[in-house]
Every structure is written in structure tokens, then in C-alpha cells.
Amino acid sequence: MSVSPDELKNRIEAAIPGTRAAVSGDGHHFDAVLEGPAFAGLSRIAQHKLVYDVFGAELGDRIHALSLKITPTEA
Amino acid sequence: MSDAATNPMREAIASAIAENPVILFMKGTPEAPACGFSARTVAMLESLDQPFAAVNILPDPAIRQELSALSGWPTIPQLFIEGELVGGCDIVTEMYETGELHKLLGVEAGAPVQASPAEPAADGSAPLSIENLL
């Protein structure tokens, strides 16, 4: 039961307004490069949690690993 | 009813975090990491000659479950410095690259790592106290 990078991209962009995501992966391990105003002013921990919250318990389960590179942008 | 008062595992994890200035929850051990992200995080700490306590979360799913409930962080590894969650492999990598990690640990960025004879605390008391609950 693999997951497509497009599914992750679409779900992140839908859940976090204004975010642009580029996601690559092999169906289990993913790399996501994100930028958007939603991350501005947040600590790194909070930035990552914003994204983790999109997937909840799927992380570590059907999404084995999700590596994040986040750049906050001006609103 | 819930949590720390009636949850020895969560209590043990909280104590381990409180008692160890640098503690890494990881898959596998520093000598034999069981996951690339854990391996990279260990390698960064070791390159700074930073002693740290390490807890292998693999032997009991309850460790990971209680750790994530406590930290609000879903993935492994998780690095705590002075009782605060610093992050997982991505954040530690970013902070390593920018020198923020060095600053947080009180080591000079770019300074030659001094050969310290100190034993890494990888097998320290905190991991044992958790594993004793298994």
C-alpha cells in the first residue's frame, strides 16, 4: 500500500494555505521541500508539527518517513 | 486517571529527559543504528564529540508511543537538549549546518573537535531505567 508523492503534495497544499510543496519519494520514504507564509514566525519544531499534523498517525505507518525542508515566506 | 501518575513508562521517559542534558531517542543503538535518520543524528553528535544518552525505542512499542505522546512529535529520532525537544534528523541537520547546534551544545562551530577520553554516556543509567521496565 504505497503512497504517491502527489498525494502528499496535494494534501499539504490543501491543508496549509499558501504553501507550495515539491515532494519526491519511493512510496514509503519521502522528501518534501516546502515554502509558504504559514511557516513564518514559527520555531522549526512548530513548522514541522504543522506538516506532521496533516498526516497524524499515518506518519511512521503508511508514510514511513517524511523528510522536510521548510522555508517560510512573507505573507 | 491518566498519564504520568499512572504511567510508569511515561514517567521513566520524562525522568530520563530531565536527568540527561543530551538524550537521543533512536532506532537501534549508537553502535548499531537501525535506521538511516537515527544513524545520521548519531554521527552529527559524535562529530561534535558530544557525549549523549541514547534510548533504543525498538524493543518495546510503548516507548515510542509514550515518547510521542509526551513530546507531541511523531517520528524517530528525537533529540532533547536540557529537557527541550530540539527535533528530529531534519532539524538537527539544519542546526548542525548553520552552527546553531554547536551553540546550543556549547561547542565552538568550526573548532577542531578535541579528542576527549570521556566515555560517551550511551549506556548510561537513563536508558537502563527505561529498559528495566520492559
Overview of the molecule:
The complex is a heterodimer of chains A (75) and B (134). Chain A has helices at residues 5-15, 44-55; strands spanning 20-25, 29-36, 65-72. Chain A is an alpha+beta fold. Chain A has a single domain, classed as BolA-like (GMP Synthetase, Chain A, domain 3). Chain A has a 3-stranded mixed beta sheet. In chain A, a hairpin with a 3-residue loop joins strand 1 (20-25) and strand 2. Chain A starts with a helix and ends with a strand. Chain B has 134 residues and is an alpha+beta fold. Chain B has a single domain (3-109, 118-124), classed as 3-Layer(aba) Sandwich (Glutaredoxin), CATH 3.40.30.10. Chain B has 6 helices and 4 strands, in the order αβαβαββααα. Chain B has a 4-stranded mixed beta sheet. In chain B, strand 3 (78-81) and strand 4 (84-87) form a beta hairpin. Classes of the chains: A alpha+beta (75), B alpha+beta (134).
Strand order of the largest sheet of chain B: 2-1-3-4
Characterize the overall form of chain B. Answer: globular
C-alpha geometry of chain A: globular
Strand order of the largest sheet of chain A: 1-2-3
**Mean pLDDT rating of chain B:** 84
Order of helix and strand elements from N to C terminus of chain B: HEHEHEEHHH
Shape-level CATH architecture of chain A: 2-Layer Sandwich
Q: Which parts of chain A are unreliable, with pLDDT below 50 for 5 consecutive residues or more?
A: none
Q: How far is the N terminus from the C terminus of chain B?
A: 22 Å
Which descriptors would you attach to this protein?
heterodimer; A: 75 residues; alpha+beta; GMP Synthetase, Chain A, domain 3; three-stranded mixed beta sheet; 3 strands; globular; B: 134 residues; Glutaredoxin; four-stranded mixed beta sheet; 6 helices; 43% helix; 13% strand
Helix and strand arrangement:
The complex is a heterodimer of chains A (75) and B (134).
Chain A: H1 5-15, E1 20-25, E2 29-36, H2 44-55, E3 65-72
Parallel strand pairs in A: 2-3
Antiparallel strand pairs in A: 1-2
Chain B: H1 8-19, E1 22-26, H2 36-47, E2 53-56, H3 61-71, E3 78-81, E4 84-87, H4 89-98, H5 100-105, H6 125-131
Parallel strand pairs in B: 1-2
Antiparallel strand pairs in B: 1-3, 3-4
Helix pairs in contact in B: 1-3, 1-6, 2-4
